[in-house]
């Protein structure tokens, strides 16, 4: 089908506005489907996303650095853990308090995001990660270290919650998942850098050095510094601005981030109309926690969000990635190999989320996640069987196979699951509730990570392979539920996702029911059957 166009030229009148001269059939109209296939985002938007992703890097480097820190002999020696009978419990607290801080940070991020904006939440999270990294590096005892790991989790989870929300709210619907996938990719990059920095300090400093563990903690301050340096450049979420009735500012940002060379603004005009009309309704609706609990469709969103967070993170990924050094020690590997294997996991998985950008918008979200979980379940079953049979290094081939299975597990997680885990559930919510939905998701993640993070060191030490059986049982249930019962948000505008939850009366207009005529007038048929005709003015600065 030939693409429809309106022959015209854009003529500048003054600094603020442009008008369009048209020579086309006044009765001809264009819909979004007529401009599909074009790029609907600007270089400015891409650069802004890259800057925001330093917030994701701040979180993942801070979260990942603990993996090699607890494996550093210098850390155990300095903190008096090498001969401490309670070392496993202390290490569990060291890792899990990061996630406890994340629970409070996620809740606080919701307050900041809804009241002062998505950018304000990113600023706050970066400052907290920066300060906590410096103070962890300067810790003089284990108590001080644990306290500031809590602070690191507080700030880190603020970023983990708000960065995907910001990306979802600025990206066009057809590439929303691909852009949000960048968040998952940078998370993997942060874990990779954190682990190799830890290995580098271990291998290149004398074993007698008691402060080798401090270097990686200090380097964790760099990503938030870079993010803070660039935040002035990025725009606020236009959907947040519409919620705050700053329509002119929101419209200008939307046209600026969703244009491309030679763009005639057709897509942006239709998109802006749908977002503005939907948020005019959303502003009138309650946005309290009580409203979320009382309304059946919102309860469904909440339970699905909790199920996704707990179910996916209970497949064993947290334990295998965080406590790989302890697992490898149980398999008979020495300290150097433990650290190299742990760091190698993140080197093997770094490309996964970036590769997924190529196909994440081509498959249903439930299909993608269920496929990854099924493959991981197979790898985990084989791993547990070998772990149970050849623990303590009695069989070299089994040792190597166990390492390979852990790598395959983590690669699969990054190829299929890491990205959707960050944004799928957040897509369920309307703009007035999206920050709260992201908070529920992030709190669920933090609580689940705390559960497994606190129990894993003692569990692996005391019951070994049996500890992994709970992950196998949970995964079976989760795979079936996600594939058959969970909604697919792929390719749908955020304003239309409510239709998947039965909220037809809360959707003002579908994007497919919006047309643009040759005079740049919007002609839209609303869900209630009424028709709207509205002139659209394009701002130059957009």
TrEMBL record:
Q: Which InterPro entries match?
A: MFS_dom, MFS_sugar_transport-like, MFS_Sugar_Transporters, MFS_trans_sf
As for subcellular location, the record says:
Membrane
Q: Ranges for the Major facilitator superfamily (MFS) profile domain?
A: 48-490
| Membrane topology designation | Multi-pass membrane protein
Q: Does the keyword Oxidoreductase apply?
A: no
GO (cellular component) term, any one: membrane
Residues passing through the membrane, by range: 43-67, 87-108, 146-168, 180-203, 215-234, 302-328, 340-360, 367-391, 397-417, 463-486
**Sorted alphabetically, which Pfam families does this protein's record hold?**
Sugar_tr
Source domain of life is Eukaryota
Q: GO molecular-function annotation terms? A: carbohydrate:proton symporter activity
What are the protein's UniProt keywords? Membrane, Transmembrane, Transmembrane helix
PANTHER family, from UniProt? MONOSACCHARIDE TRANSPORTER (HXT8), PUTATIVE (AFU_ORTHOLOGUE AFUA_2G08120)-RELATED, PLASTIDIC GLUCOSE TRANSPORTER 4
Q: Its family?
A: Belongs to the major facilitator superfamily. Sugar transporter (TC 2.A.1.1) family.
According to UniProt, the name of this protein is Major facilitator superfamily (MFS) profile domain-containing protein
What species was this sequence derived from?
Fonsecaea multimorphosa CBS 102226
């Amino acid at each position: 089908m030939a693409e429809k166009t309106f022959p015209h030229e854009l003529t500048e009148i003054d600094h603020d506005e442009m008008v369009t001269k048209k020579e086309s059939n006044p009765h001809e109209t264009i819909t979004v489907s007529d401009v599909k296939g074009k790029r609907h985002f600007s270089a400015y938007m891409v650069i802004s996303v890259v800057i925001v992703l330093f917030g994701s890097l701040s979180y993942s480097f801070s979260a990942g650095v603990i993996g090699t820190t607890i494996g550093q002999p210098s850390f155990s020696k300095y903190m008096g853990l090498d001969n401490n009978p309670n070392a496993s419990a202390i290490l569990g607290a060291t890792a899990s308090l990061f996630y406890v801080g994340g629970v409070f940070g996620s809740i606080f991020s919701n307050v900041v995001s809804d009241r002062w904006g998505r950018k304000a939440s990113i600023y706050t999270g970066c400052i907290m990660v920066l300060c906590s990294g410096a103070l962890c590096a300067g810790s003089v005892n284990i108590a001080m270290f644990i306290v500031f790991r809590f602070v690191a989790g507080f700030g880190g989870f603020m970023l983990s919650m708000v960065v995907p929300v910001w990306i979802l709210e600025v990206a066009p619907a057809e590439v929303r998942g691909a852009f949000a996938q960048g968040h998952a990719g940078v998370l993997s990059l942060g874990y990779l850098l954190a682990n190799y920095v830890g290995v580098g300090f271990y291998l290149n400093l004398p074993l007698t050095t008691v402060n080798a563990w401090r270097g990686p903690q200090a380097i964790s301050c760099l990503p938030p510094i870079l993010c803070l340096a660039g935040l002035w450049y990025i725009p606020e979420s236009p959907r947040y601005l519409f919620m705050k009735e700053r329509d002119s500012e929101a419209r200008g940002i939307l046209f600026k981030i969703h244009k491309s060379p030679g763009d005639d603004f057709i897509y942006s005009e239709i998109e802006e109309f749908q977002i503005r009309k939907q948020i005019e309704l959303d502003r009138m609706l309650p946005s309290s926690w009580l409203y979320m609990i009382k309304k059946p469709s919102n309860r469904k969103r909440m339970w699905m969000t909790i199920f996704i967070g707990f179910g996916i993170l209970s497949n064993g990924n947290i334990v295998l990635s965080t406590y790989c050094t302890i697992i490898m020690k149980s398999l008979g590997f020495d300290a150097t190999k433990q650290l190299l294997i742990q760091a190698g996991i993140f080197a093997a998985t770094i490309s996964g989320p970036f590769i997924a950008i190529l196909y994440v918008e081509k498959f249903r979200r439930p299909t993608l996640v269920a496929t990854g979980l099924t493959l991981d379940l197979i790898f985990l079953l084989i791993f547990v069987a070998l772990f149970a049979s050849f623990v303590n290094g009695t069989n070299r081939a089994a040792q190597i196979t166990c390492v390979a299975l852990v790598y395959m597990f983590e690669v699969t997680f990054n190829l299929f699951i890491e990205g959707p885990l960050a944004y799928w559930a957040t897509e369920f919510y309307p703009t007035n509730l999206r920050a709260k939905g992201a908070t529920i998701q992030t709190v669920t993640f933090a609580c689940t990570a705390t559960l497994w993070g606190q129990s894993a060191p003692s569990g692996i030490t005391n019951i070994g392979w049996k500890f992994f059986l709970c992950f196998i049982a949970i995964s079976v249930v989760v795979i079936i539920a996600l594939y058959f019962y969970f909604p697919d948000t792929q390719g749908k505008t955020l304003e239309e996702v409510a239709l998947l939850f039965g909220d037809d009366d809360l959707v003002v207009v579908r994007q497919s029911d919006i047309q643009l005529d040759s005079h740049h007038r919007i002609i839209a048929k609303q869900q209630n059957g009424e028709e709207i005709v509205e002139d659209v003015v394009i701002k130059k600065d957009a």
